[in-house]
Structure formats: C-alpha cells, structure tokens
Design goal:
The complex is a heterodimer of chains A (about 130) and B (about 100). Chain A has about 130 residues and is an alpha+beta fold. Chain A is about 20% helix and about 10% strand. Chain A has a domain at about 45-125. Chain A has helices at about 80-90, 100-110, 120-125, and strands spanning about 15, 25-30, 45, 55-60, 65, 80. The longest helix of chain A has 12 residues, at about 100-110. Chain B has about 100 residues and is α+β, with helices and mostly antiparallel strands. Chain B has one domain (about 5-90): Outer Surface Protein A, domain 3. Chain B has helices spanning about 45-50, 60-70, 75-90; strands at about 10, 20, 25-30, 35-40, 55, 70, 90-95. In chain B, strand 3 and strand 4 (about 35-40) form a beta hairpin. The chains are: A alpha+beta (about 130), B alpha+beta (about 100). The interface between A and B is large, with 41 and 50 residues. Chain A: Keywords: Signal.
Chain lengths: ~130, ~100
C-alpha cells in the first residue's frame, strides 16, 4: 500500500532511544528555491478558498464543498494575511472567526498544494526563522 | 512544565502529504504541503511512527515510547522540545 509510512519499531527487541537535549535540534529543514523570493510573511495573502472556487464552503476538515453544505462554513469575506495565518497555525484564532470556523479555515490552509493560490505564502510561513 | 499542554493531541501530518526516505544516518522527510524537505534524526522518525494519524497526548506518547524503546532520557522537557520542532515544521499537527 503506502511505503511512505515510518518504520514501525521492533517490539520484540527494544532499542535504546534518546529524546535528545532541550537545546539541540533534531530537524534540519532544506528551503526550496521559492524561499529566495522572500515573500513577506506579514503582507502575503491566502484566499480561502482560492479564487477558482470562490464562494464554495469549507468543511470542518478543510475540504472545499459546495456552497450551502450543512455543517460547513461560508468562506470568509477577505483573504487572510500571512501573519494572521501564522498566529492561527501556532494555536491562535483567525480574526473575525469563531473557534470552529478558524479551525476549518486553518485546515484548508494546511491542505494547500503547490499551484494553489496562497501556497507560496503558506510555504513561507513554514520556513524556519533565522 | 506547563500542564495546559496535557490535553493537546499531537498527530503526524497525513501520510499522503509526506514522502519519507530512510538514509544511512538521517531520514529525509519531504513535506508536500510546504514543499520543504526536512532531514531528521532519531528520535524524530520514532516519534512520528508512534504518533501516527490517530495522534496522542504528550503523556501517552511518552508512555508509548517507553514501552517500545529503552529511553535513555525520559524527560518531558526533551520530548516537548522535539514536539515543538515538529509542530513548527508542520510534520506534526496539534488539536
């Protein structure tokens, strides 16, 4: 099926594992070339949903569904700024939304793929700082 | 530490958004959602495997890792540091 899943630990013989020091990093991120475009995190925008699907509703899991779908949320009236999304991804809430709306919109943004409007902005939010 | 983290459920990013390649001493994780490749070392692959898509709280994760591995340093601060790194990269989501 999916050979991308992480290897399952060997439960018959327990390996030693170190969680590592608090200050040490276990992740090194390789920035793609688009990082050099230096899109400003504070001013770039992410439309929800993208313009090709404007007017569609956003389900709780972030999928785009037909307008009026029960349990889904109407799109926000304006695109979100990168800085607002960054705050929301860190556990905050998008402005002008309630908790459920914010979670649905944030889930939509997490699902953004290359080529979708707002993806470059989302990708730059993922860049490690510094 | 801050006990308000106790209720947070951590889960691995959806498998279809990740391409994971095990190298000799590193594991390369390509995160399709952000287009960024992360080179990770132990204990990150082990944490991702333990969390899975279902996700679990920090306490459950520590318990799970303690069952699967002989932890040399079962400290909450260390686990928090790893989880914070993973959340920052988008490889782990919180709910």
């Amino acid at each position: 099926m999916n050979d991308d899943t992480p290897e399952l630990p060997n439960t018959t013989r327990r390996r030693a594992l170190m969680l590592g020091a608090v200050g040490a990093a276990a992740v090194v991120s390789i920035r793609p070339a688009l990082a050099s475009t230096a899109a400003s995190i504070s001013t770039c925008e992410i439309p929800v949903p993208d313009s090709g699907r404007a007017g569609s509703y956003i389900a709780a899991d972030g999928t785009v569904v037909p307008a009026g779908t029960r349990g889904a949320f109407a799109p926000p009236g304006r695109p979100f700024k990168g800085e607002e999304v960054k705050t929301a991804l860190a556990g905050g809430q998008l402005p002008g939304t309630n908790y459920e709306q914010s979670r649905a919109y944030t889930n939509y943004i997490r699902r953004l793929q290359s080529g979708t409007s707002g993806f470059t902005c989302f990708a730059s939010l993922q860049m490690p700082r510094g | 530490m801050n006990d308000s983290r106790g209720d947070i459920v951590y889960r691995m990013a959806r498998p279809e958004t990740l391409k994971i390649v095990h190298l000799d001493s590193f594991t390369a994780v390509f995160h399709r959602a952000s287009g960024i490749t992360h080179l990770v070392t132990s204990p990150v692959p082990e944490i991702l495997a333990a969390l899975g898509e279902a996700g679990m709280t920090r306490a459950d994760l520590m318990a799970r890792l303690s069952v699967d591995y002989v932890l040399g340093d079962a400290e909450e601060g260390s686990l928090d540091a790893r989880l914070e790194e993973l959340v920052a990269t988008g490889l782990v989501a919180v709910a």
